[in-house]
UniProtKB/TrEMBL annotation:
This is Long-chain fatty acid--CoA ligase. SUPFAM superfamilies: Acetyl-CoA synthetase-like. Keywords: ATP-binding, Coiled coil, Ligase, Nucleotide-binding. Residues 22-460 form the AMP-dependent synthetase/ligase domain. It comes from Solitalea longa. GO terms for cellular component: membrane.
Length: 637
């Protein structure tokens, strides 16, 4: 790893790697062109970044100007980001899934000057709102055939293809090379490197100001926690770079270590790309791991018979081996032999579908259901859970490679302090650091608060809202509820998610929802019950399971009725609700539910870009259906 210090900034990372770890000709980035992956070297990446910097200088971009990216993951994102970072400009990445009004808000709120646009669909979105954005001067399509979309556009914004920008920048390099070097040297650790807009579950998105020091310190400390990452690793990138998790855990980590990044074509093609790239590391979200768990279990047990018995036997052997390893006990001769056979017959076949080379996956963005973590642990695939927020750059805790407590998000990273605070009295129960780690430590539950170099500079242009989340003593209030379990941080829920029933019982919906999501018949679940006598839910069934169980065609899922009322399907869902309710306290059990035909989605405004449910919007949108759940009780428990 190239040396990084408290003075290191983002534009220095790749140059450090080329000087001390890799040669300019070594591969860094790769994307699929046609039928195969093509590599781009470290040297080519830096040359393209310099060309973009020259073009930016030519159009008058200076330190602290905001430049936007509305583009899927790929090399162009890296070139553009590296080019602006070394001028001290600020990266404002926008989720490609956002609506036109949301994109317009971010452009105007940030005062963005240029915008890199990834595809035809996104360019159409931008052109509709471009003339409402006074600061925006240049729209840069990442593709050359943009004219067929812009020929009707007669607005004031200049439109120029990325390839033209790159060529013009190369021609300008001799003019600006010295100035680029000077600009790069003038970038300070405390300068803002990025505005990352929060996903807005409770209101208008706010731009978190993350500095070079925020990102660099977070990467450095995470690599202390996970020292097994090397320059030989290959990361497969598919989570959006507009989100801080992928930016830090894949992009910046690889810039520090000199590891390779391959870009997945899409979520739909991820399985195919894993086989092609054969990654050693991936950053993932829990929902992907849940789907892999469901599919592997279904394939292993389909049809019953000998195949199913072998699968279930192998999973039981994997469980026994995992549990012994977790407490440091030897496997013994018999269990070792059984594990070897389970690996040969079952586990190796599942691992082949991930490319066969995975050392581990890093799961973040939401809590990983315990049963999913156990499933992968039984297979011998390491899942390291991480925890943090946009405002904390993001990582506050992550699982250690050699020590894992499934159901927790790992040990507090070096350099920060994480505390648990009583949500009512504001008493701080405990303060924990990397150095204070005790594998037997347990704490009371409360709000998770943090101090340290990972904490953002504040919200862009919103000092009052910054003061709400960063108190006078410098603690950032996460809004998450948690505790320490065996020395590791455990997330319970969001404070704003907590449901308090009419009897005063606190109910943490995430825990309850994850229990019901163990059912292969349930795809999504939204819990209701605040200030009510009992819990109800809106449930989205697994379309695959419905098709197989009731021989349904696509017309059924395209029917206009929002909710499914077929008695057979209601009873089919009720069977699993009853079974899984036994794992919960009586006040946590669902007594009635509605079955929603279509999934909650980003497009309908029901999910954030990080796939969190927008509680207020869902409760308002389905208010009538929710009221009906309290009139006609099914008694699902």
């Amino acid at each position: 790893m190239a040396q990084i210090t408290e003075r290191t900034t983002i534009p220095q990372l790749l140059r450090n790697v080329v000087q001390g770890v890799k040669s300019p000709n070594d591969p860094f980035l790769s994307e699929k062109i046609g039928t195969e992956y093509k590599s781009i070297s470290f040297g080519e990446t830096l040359a393209n970044a310099d060309a973009l910097s020259a073009w930016f200088m030519e159009i008058g971009i200076k330190k602290a100007d905001r430049l936007g990216l509305l583009i899927e993951n790929g090399p162009k994102y890296v070139f553009f980001d590296q080019g602006l970072q070394q001028l001290g400009a600020i990266n404002v990445s926008i989720y490609p899934t956002l609506s036109e009004p949301e994109i317009e808000h971010i452009i105007n709120d940030s005062g963005m000057k240029t915008l890199l646009v990834g595809n035809h669909f996104l360019l159409r979105k931008v052109l509709k709102i471009a003339d409402n954005c006074s600061s925006l001067e240049y729209i840069i399509p990442a593709f050359d055939d943009y004219a067929k979309i812009t020929h009707h556009y007669h607005g004031s914004k200049k439109v120029i293809a990325f390839s033209e920008v790159l060529e013009e920048g190369k021609a300008l390099l001799s003019k600006y090379a010295g100035k680029i070097f000077q600009a790069r040297e003038m970038v300070q650790p405390d300068d803002v490197a990025a505005l990352i807009y929060t996903s807005g579950t409770t209101g208008t998105p706010k731009g978190a100001m993350l500095t070079h020091a925020n990102f660099i310190s977070n990467v450095r400390e995470c690599l202390v926690q996970i020292p097994v990452i090397t320059s030989d690793d290959v990361f497969l990138s598919f989570l959006p770079l507009s989100h801080v998790f992928e930016r830090t855990a894949t992009y910046h980590v690889c810039c520090v270590k000199g590891a390779q990044i391959a870009y997945a074509q899409s979520l739909e093609l991820l399985g195919k790309n894993m086989m092609e790239v054969q990654p050693t590391v991936m950053s993932v979200v829990p929902r992907l791991l849940e789907r892999i768990t469901e599919k592997a279990t279904k394939n292993g047990t389909a049809g019953g018979g000998l195949k199913s018995k072998i699968f279930l036997w192998a999973m039981e052997i994997g469980r026994k081996a995992r549990e012994r390893k977790e407490v440091g006990e030897p496997l013994g001769i018999i269990l070792s032999a059984q594990l070897g056979l389970a690996e040969k017959l079952v586990f190796s076949k599942i691992k082949e579908k991930t490319g066969g080379n995975l050392k581990f996956m890093i799961s973040g963005g939401a809590a990983l259901p315990k049963n999913v973590g156990e499933f992968f642990g039984n297979l011998g695939i390491k899942i390291l859970e991480g925890y943090g927020l946009t405002e904390t750059s993001p990582v506050m805790a992550v699982t250690e490679f050699h020590r894992q407590v499934i159901g927790t998000v790992g040990r507090v990273i070096p350099g920060i302090v994480v505390a648990i605070q009583n949500t009512d009295t504001k008493e701080i129960y405990t303060k924990q650091t990397y150095e204070s780690f005790d594998p037997n430590f347990e704490s009371a539950e409360g709000e998770i608060i943090v101090k340290g170099p990972c904490v953002m500079k504040g919200y862009w242009g919103k000092p009052e809202e910054t003061a709400i989340v960063i108190d006078e003593d410098g603690w950032f209030h996460t809004g998450d509820v948690g505790r320490f379990n065996k020395g590791n941080l455990q997330i319970t829920d969001r404070i704003k998610n907590i449901l308090i029933n009419s009897y005063g019982k606190n109910i943490y919906p995430t825990q309850v929802e994850n229990t019901y999501l163990k059912s292969t018949r349930i795809e999504q679940i939204f819990l209701i019950g605040d200030k009510r006598d009992y819990l109800t839910a809106i449930i989205v069934p697994s379309h695959d399971s419905l098709r197989e169980s009731f021989d349904l065609d696509e017309d059924f899922f395209n029917e206009p009725d929002q909710f499914i009322e077929d008695e057979q399907i209601v009873n089919w869902i009720k069977e699993d609700i009853k079974r899984l309710s036994n794992e919960l306290a009586k006040f946590e059990r669902i007594k009635n539910f509605a079955i929603k035909r279509h999934p909650f989605s980003i497009e309908t405004g029901e999910l954030t870009p990080t796939l969190k449910t927008k509680r207020r919007i869902i409760e308002k949108k389905y208010a009538d259906e929710i009221d009906e759940l309290y009139e006609d009780v099914v008694e699902a428990d």
